[in-house]
Amino acid sequence: MSAIGTTTPDTQASPPIKEVVHTQITPSRGWVSLQLNELWKYRELLYFLTWRDVKVRYKQTVLGAAWAIIQPFFTMIVFSLFFGQLAGIEADGGVPYPVATYTALVPWTFFANGLSQSSNSLVSSANLLKKIYFPRLVIPVSSVISGLVDFVLAFIVLMIMMLVYGIVPTINILFLPFFLLLAFTTALGVGLWLSAMNVQFRDVRYTIPFLTQFWLFATPIAYPSSLLDEPWRTIYGINPMAGVVEGFRWALLGTDTSPGPMIFVSLATAITLLVSGAFYFRRMEKTFADVV
Amino acid sequence: MSDLAIRVEGLGKKYHIGSAQKSYSTLRDTLSTAFVAPFVRAGRLLRGQATGAAGLTEVIWALDDVSFEVRHGEVVGIIGHNGAGKSTLLKVLSRITEPTRGKVDLYGRVGSLLEVGTGFHPELTGRENIFLNGAILGMSRVEIERKFDEIVAFAEVEKFIDTPVKHYSSGMGLRLGFAVAAHLEPEILVVDEVLAVGDAAFQRKCLGKMGEVAQEGRTVLFVSHNMAAIENLCSRTILLKQGKFINDGPTNEIINEYLSDNKPLAYGNLATAPRPKSSYRPVLQSFNILDEQGEPTATIRSNDPVTFEIKYKSDELTSNLIFAILVHTVTKTPLVFFQTLTHHGPVERWPSEGVLRLKIPALPLGAGTYRLSVECATSRRPKDLVDVVENCAELTVVAQDFFGTGYLPKTGPHGYFLVNGEWEIPAASNGHMAGAPTEQTTKSVVEKPDIAPTAQETSQATAAASSEPTESTPTEGA
Ligand SMILES: Nc1ncnc2c1ncn2[C@@H]1O[C@H](COP(=O)(O)OP(=O)(O)OP(=O)(O)O)[C@@H](O)[C@H]1O
Ligand SMILES: [Mg+2]
Which of B89, B121, B363, B423 is deepest in the core (most CB within 10 A)? Predict the structure, then answer.
């Protein structure tokens, strides 16, 4: 956005000898830097916006926190009935189908909600954008972060389920935060693209349910990715959520289908999405307040 | 310049606005446009050009080549009609939107108050909203904690602090919003029309707070349509018109320039003049200011005789009418009210039309521009007003050596009225003549401790208007 330089004042400055922050505002052209240091300076705002999202969500609904569990849990039941029982799909490594599916649905729900929340975040914060200055990245980032609370709740249920089925997590569980971060990166990357576009054209909002629906079936949730043979399995990793889901199963349930090269493909895609999304977002940022 | 706070150079801001006049000549055109346009737009979107929204082809310059400078500690008003670009200017300064052209240098942290209570969430309690809003405005959590009690006290919402804001009255919400913003401590504060909200007491409180902020030596840019507020707070004012910088100077002059621009004054004939309410009946027919010779005029010297003349006509109302003339400043501060009831006593029977004259033997107003409004009523209650014409005439009063000392009195910061009074001055031993401002006389004023500081404060507050005695101007007939 604007070129910002901090300079010290002339030596014969006004009596209270204080450092004067000098800001210069000029029109920007083309691609601009990400200014992550600005984002860091506004971390308290990030915290408060996240806190607001979480607080409001749990205050406003009757079932409150229960929603975080209902959504993946019932999807799991439906999938178990139709895919597990009727279609007879089996999970890898002899893991009971419901557990394998729920393990995938926990990160998936975090991803899908993060994606749709962040895509709509700028439009729903229109009033803030028009009245206050702050790095606009704060808004989609906080909306993805606030999904973490739901994730934790759903994850606790997962732990209980594993206990019930008598499944002991392997040492690989240490890699779990990495897979969560991968899901986060993907959700934010897509969210940045879509939120910036959504400001200009509200059609984007209508494509989001369609997109997540499609993506759900393009991700190995109802079925294991081991249905595919090797070169294809790695290529499947282009969908970063495939890597996340298989990673979760591997880390928690100890399925022997360790994600291997697939994960690296997923990682590369996710990072590409995030970086390109962030630059696109920054480029469009200057118009947000005028158009939204 | 080391004491510079804001430098704006050639600032321009372009907006795209829709134009609906585009007409399609044939169905084929229409269809092809409908199918091609989305792809063109999508292409623009991906290339990061954001002017792509549907058919926003018309361009307006909300700011056009605006340049000015503001020094640290200055309180500057910004005025102009709706759409003049005031809010846009503040948005550019607070980095909410980017300029299209030009450059702004800011020396100091900028805090902006473009709206009261931005980001308030109705589901959260007052306490939670204070923290949220504070963070949005750029305060740190520690800072908010430190000022929390002060904020709550200022907003006067102690009892409701743990109630969700959705249960607040709208005034309470505004109070709370303003209270948070008022405790910001940036070096440069930009404030948009935010004080126009809330009840009268709250507005007074806000203005008071703004005055305090100004007094603390912070730089303030203040946008308002309330000329009295601008006059009170700002020593200097900038006038914008349709995005262009028009003038910049002492507040009084700029306000006069602005107001003379929208002068819907109904000189003479009032029958067709606009009324502030549609329910008023056009009873008042004309209004004139007459000089000593009985000639209509718009200029009078202080202390000269003047006559105000009202012609009225009413077929239905002929009993218990009350007429009144209000003399006020251009910013609507009332100065004198002349009412038939109070000046003359009740009159029961009135002819269906006639002329009233109010003769003032010596006009006690100082030099300046004044306006008059007339009204007619059937009782003193506001609901019984029959007709009102605001700003029906403008009267320019020219200075004259009123007190016969050879020094012309000043108006505005020194008040509007000229009232004779006798100063008793202690005689100095060497027999100096009283009247000349020598050191002795200045000192002797200190004997009256009530007066000295007040006089000093006045002259400080009105640095623009020098407090030195004006050179005597030989006025004709003085
Ligand atoms: N986001 C926007 N998109 C298009 N045009 C805009 C936008 N914001 C402002 N404008 C236009 O810019 C011009 C200046 O608007 P601005 O809000 O600065 O006026 P203002 O002086 O604050 O007026 P007011 O006294 O009504 O508050 C107006 O003509 C307005 O239509
Ligand atoms: Mg405005």
Answer: B89
